[in-house]
Design goal:
By secondary structure, the chain is mainly alpha-helical. It has 4 helices and 2 strands; from the N terminus they run H-H-H-H-E-E. Helix 3 packs antiparallel against helix 4. The chain starts with a helix and ends with a strand.
Amino acid sequence: MPLMVRAALLLFAAVAAVAVCARAAAEEGAVDPEVAACKQQCARQPQFGAAERRRCEERCDEYGRAKREAATGEEAERERDRCLHECRVGPPKPGCERRCREAYDRAARGRGGGAPRGVAAPTRRGCGGRWQAAAGQ
């Protein structure tokens, strides 16, 4: 392959990797609009003292955490279903469905119904379409 083509491909891969990392960082730091609105409502309550306002904002944060955990659990179920679908199409893959279910069960046990941090669900990794449990943060 000519040197210029290799350089172009390498540059494209680097730009794509930076874009993916930037998007992930933006999503982690993103504030849920509902939580932000809740906190604004807390701040606008004239009858609240400092302690009541702080408790109100803590409840807003708790709501945001519960909402994220519920979304993570739903995501884990979708990943499990996707994994099972991949097992059932194409040539037979011995033990594939069992691995999908075990990865989902480990994720569900780790967070009381949702996926634990670092193991969202089985995901496709590398070439060949192999399914593995997602390694974590």
